[in-house]
């Protein structure tokens, strides 16, 4: 049995407490009036920029870039609605304030979403292994089930965030603001789909479906330990196949709702699969990290280097797959260069240059160079190092998907963002470690378990 | 290699209690024997179709592309549809040989050889279309970036069509090397059995001097793994680049970012359908039911079901995002597909590709040989229509309504397409008479873990092998009492 040590527990409490402080600081330091927001921008500009802003064009282009962000958010070129010139100035200031007030919310949201999607990625990996009747992985099922236990608290937090957004406590989803919709023909045409009620119904339905599968499959998985026949195993196999169909459809819609709609004018048919690759590789990485951690505690004795090798192969393979999807989406939009689509990347190149391109180094080059070699996939500290880099890289990936639409040019990775990361890391570790103490981490009873124990690459 | 332990719930992959020598005999039989009447009938039909197609190709080249059904609005239709269809079919071979090797899937052993052969033969068909469409195929080498005497006249590196040249030629080369590497021990097996000197000479040339030493096998394993590693990105890259031919444009219905992975899924889908079509016939004709079992067909059906569903998901995504985008041209392109004059093709595609694979959820249906064959044909047709729908419906009603028109193929178009089907079958039928159609060396490597008699022995707890009795056997009968007495 795994013991959740006092020291580890205390660490998770400290992480959560520090995280909450950071987030609270973010909310308290956000401007409350237009004047404050303008003063902050002015002060920030005269600073000559913090070191995390590598973008030299920022100062010179600030006024213009806020305009660009604004244009992208609610008035894409060519779709300018009949706003009067003087109205425009006030609207612009209000928009600046909204963006700056969005920052702590967004910092919270990126981490909340990323941690939830890690658990969802693990759930998808688990379901694929069950549906494919994979022989190597059954030894790791309890680890995966432990990680997916985060879906419930993580899902509740996300849902509360969506409800608060729908109640206009923030402007992360600008299409939720009736004022914006009234002036924006493009969003108005989508409002049959993009409206707060339907959005919340969809979110509840998706989360409900995923959590239902997680709970039911876990129950069958535990029941198989003591069963004398394979009924639970077979039912779990069928359930997993059914879940994957549900997941295939809901995952895409989830990504449009929760992420793509933050840039409500922009669209990309590939987006859903791109988001999936990002959280899928992060989920597999977390499985590898927890497996190595439990092994270091002397548990999971039968998990051998071949299992670690396989997990690392998936980390490598899906990292390359993620890059493939990133490239496909980017290249096609860059090549065609039509204004409906290209604004998305123009914004990211102009305002988010360093994290946008740096993420490619972390998510592609680093795994490619470090764990391409077969032997290195079997060395724990290599896998751990690459794993941590992958997690940082994909956090930035989600950051880049969310921030440009919600805070525009006024981004930074500072106290609120670190607060979000600390809080959700602490919560995630706490929930998963607690779940791992419930049952022995080595499963019994599955008809494929012997294959997993004898697994040798 | 993968573990030799196999869970008892897994179904055997080799049936009929085969021994190693049975495997050699069964797989060498079609090569060593002579062709039966059915083979000659099918071969003659394929040859006639091929010759007819060749005639149409010669007619096209001597007269001009004007003999095709293309027009000013639909300036790319039949030829590119056939090209993409054939390239797509090729994908199953590489997936089975490379990706399933990396995943250590034992069921690939019986089907990889023929799937790879299919890949190579279908890529040859695909390659014909762009070459014919050049009008002057003797200048086909102009697609290669060769230094020339025309000053700075270079190929257009910005064009996805050029990327296609590189992608497909790389793909063909790697697939060919991979295929041939796997063939070496099998050719050597046929060489060693050959009685006629001519055959012996031919197969010893083909087997590149394979000796079967431990070192040979070790290199064989290593090179297979390296080639699988190289070929796996190729499975994705080839159809990705084919999709770029369309998606880099600004034509509504073509320019959509989901194209790369969705084309790859569609290619695997159509490729597996073609593998099923070919192997269901071949296992019967050549008598290989014990190697290509119902279990193999079931697993291929599952791949068809999964990739069909992914393709279906992509269709729905395209439709929804076309509406969501708010771009009227996008919206019209998809409305026109589903309800316009080519709606019949669209709905044929939908029902063949999305609806029909869903029957595979039922175990009775996916383990039925006849039904699997039927669905494999349906999917082949559906995937042809998919390309036709994408290409023709997006072009025939362009930005200028006065130029809207329809496309209909001429007899030359149809003749060339039929000709490539004939050519494909000519090659495949010749292959099935001269090549070991199953990777016998690899099948032997899984016999002890997945052969039915060994699985039965293991289930009974008996050893897989007992030493044969040798020399004079003396049996002793010792009474239990006498043993206990001796210990005193």
Overview of this structure, please?
The complex is a heterodimer of chains A (about 450) and B (about 500). Chain A has about 450 residues and is an all-alpha fold. Chain A has one domain (about 5-35, about 100-455). Chain A has helices at about 5-30, 35-45, 55-60, 60-75, 85-130, 140-150, 150-165, 180-185, 185-190, 195-225, 230-260, 270-295, 305-335, 340-350, 355-370, 380-405, 415-435, 450-455. In chain A, helix 4 packs antiparallel against helix 14, helix 5 (about 85-130) packs antiparallel against helix 6 (about 140-150) and helix 14 packs across helix 15 (about 355-370). Chain A is globular, with a radius of gyration of 23 Å. The model of chain A is unreliable at about 50-85 (pLDDT under 50). In chain B, helix 1 (about 20-30) packs antiparallel against helix 15, helix 4 crosses helix 5 (about 160-195) and helix 9 packs across helix 10 (about 330-340). The mean pLDDT of chain B is about 90. Chain B is built from 17 helices and no strands. The two termini of chain B are about 55 Å apart. With about 500 residues, chain B is an all-alpha fold. Chain B is globular. Chain B has a single domain (about 20-485), classed as Formate dehydrogenase/DMSO reductase domain (Formate dehydrogenase/DMSO reductase fold, Up-down Bundle), CATH 1.20.1630. Chain B has helices spanning about 20-30, 35-65, 80-100, 110-135, 160-195, 195-205, 215-245, 260-285, 295-325, 330-340, 345-355, 365, 370-395, 410-435, 440-450, 450-460, 480-485. The interface of A and B includes residues 329 and 454 of A.
